[in-house]
Amino acid sequence: MSTPLPTPRLPGDSPRLPRFPFPPRLSSIMPGQLGRATALFAAIVLFLAALPILTMITMSFSAADTLEFPPHAYSLHWYRAAWHSFVSPDASDSLSMGAALTTSLVVALSTMLIATLVSVPAAYALSRYRFRGKPAVEQLVALPLVYPLVMLGLSLLLVFNVLPVELGVFRLIIAHVILALPFTVKNCAASVASIGPEFEEAACVMGASPGRALVDVILPLMRPGILAGMLFAFIVSFNEFTVTFFLYGIDTMTLPVWLYSRTVSSLDPTVFCFAVVIVVIDFALIWLLEKLIGDEGVAL
Question: What is the pTM of this model?
Answer without folding.
Answer: 0.75
